[in-house]
Amino acid sequence: MLSIVGIDGIDVSYYAGKLAQELVVEASGVPHAIVRAAQFHEFAEQISARTSLCPLTIAPRLLVRPVAAREVGEHLIRAAEAARPAARRTSSSPRSTRPLT
């Protein structure tokens, strides 16, 4: 299962839904892997598309640790193939923080 890095203790909106999904998977008793990933590089393009008005783009100032969606997908496959009855949580994120400006 793909989830989000750093969502523990955030009980609102989309994050609450992801936490609920994790609980359901963990309680299922079936072999599983939960991979928590950082934001994808592609996230910047989504922000730009949603905050553009003609030639102008309003870009929020954020600190992010982006990771390539392909890299997360590959990590998710490896985690799923290695899943055992006990819950396994792994994360996929880069080591450096980069400003998104």
Give a short summary of the structure.
The chain is built from three helices and seven strands. It is α/β, with parallel strands linked by helices. Strand 3 and strand 4 form a beta hairpin.
What's the helix count?
3
Helix content: 25-40%
How would a textbook summarize the main sheet? 3 strands, parallel
Instruction: Write out the strand line-up for the largest beta sheet, numbering strands in chain order.
Output: 1-2-6
The low-confidence parts are: 96-101
Describe it for me?
By secondary structure, this protein is of the alpha/beta class. It is 36% helix and 21% strand. The chain is built from 3 helices and 7 strands. It has helices spanning 13-27, 43-50, 69-81; strands spanning 2-4, 34-37, 52-53, 56-57, 62-64, 89-92, 98-100. A 3-stranded parallel sheet has the order 1-2-6, sandwiched between helices. The two termini are 30 Å apart. The model is unreliable at 96-101 (pLDDT under 50).
SSE blueprint:
Elements lengths: L1 E3 L8 H15 L6 E4 L5 H8 L1 E2 L2 E2 L4 E3 L4 H13 L7 E4 L5 E3 L1
Parallel strand pairs: 1-2, 2-6
Antiparallel strand pairs: 3-4, 5-7
Which key phrases capture this entry?
101 residues, alpha/beta, three-stranded parallel beta sheet, 3 helices, 7 strands, disordered C terminus
